[in-house]
Amino acid sequence: MNKTIVLVFLASLLVFFGCQTDLDEKAFLKWVENPENGLNKTKKTAEYVYSVLYKPAAYKAILANRKIELEDLEVSDFLNFTLTLGVDKDIDFVDYHAGVNGNKQAILDYLAFSFQNDIWLETNGKKVPCALYHFERSFDLKSTRKINLGFQIEDKGIKNIKLVIAPKFNTSGKVKFSFDLTHIPKVKI
Fold first, then answer.
1. Strands across the sheet with 160-165, in order?
2. Partners of 180 in the β-ladder
3. I need a surface site. Which of 49, 137, 175, 181 has the fewest CB within 10 A?
């Protein structure tokens, strides 16, 4: 009898804690930004550090201080990311790269315009080009640079996506980030 009670108790705990609950806005923002949850990822190559944050529609709505609508709780047909490029040295990213290749204006032009063509999503066997690209040009000496990315997708029911970055300046080749969109919690409305 005691074993049965213990088993029922353990099964109840598993069901209770295993089920996803809706998060309040502040908790949702922290959940998305927490690297342990799989939406905020970082990879290092020989010279560069790439960090990518997938931003669900509800995340963007909260940051924009707008009321969350029901459609914000579903996977949007427009997927947004923030890509942060950096180096492991205490030097400006652009200056570091210009020092390697000798032309600061060329790297700025590439980051501001052409780099968009070297970034895409892979989903359901299709290559989806970058539809929104904004290089945040800052005038400080940071070792990182941010780029906002957006991709128009046809299938709102996708579960897994892969972001592929193939920069001309990275001699290590393509950098790939996989995202599982099935476990993102809901936000309390």
1. 126-129, 119-123, 160-165, 175-180
2. 160
3. 137
- Give the C-alpha distances (Å, rounded to integers) separating 137 from 15, 107, 143: 48, 12, 13
The type of residue at 173 is G
Q: How far is CA 50 from the centre of its chain?
A: 11
**Residue 53 bridge partners (DSSP):** 40, 82
Burial class of 113 by CB neighbour count within 10 A (0 to 12, 13 to 18, 19+): exposed
> Which residues are paired to 176 by β-bridges?
164
The vertex-161 CA angle with 56 and 109, nearest 5°, equals: 80
* Rounded-to-integer distance, Cα 124 and Cα 75, Å: 15
What digits encode the pLDDT tens for the residues 42-71? 999 888 899 999 999 889 989 988 877 766
pTM of the model: 0.83
Entry field: residues in the chain:
189
**Distance, CA of 55 to CA of 181 (rounded, Å):** 11
Question: 64-73: which pairs have CB atoms within 8 A and are 24 or more residues apart?
Answer: 68/25, 68/187, 68/189, 70/189, 72/187, 73/186, 73/187, 73/189
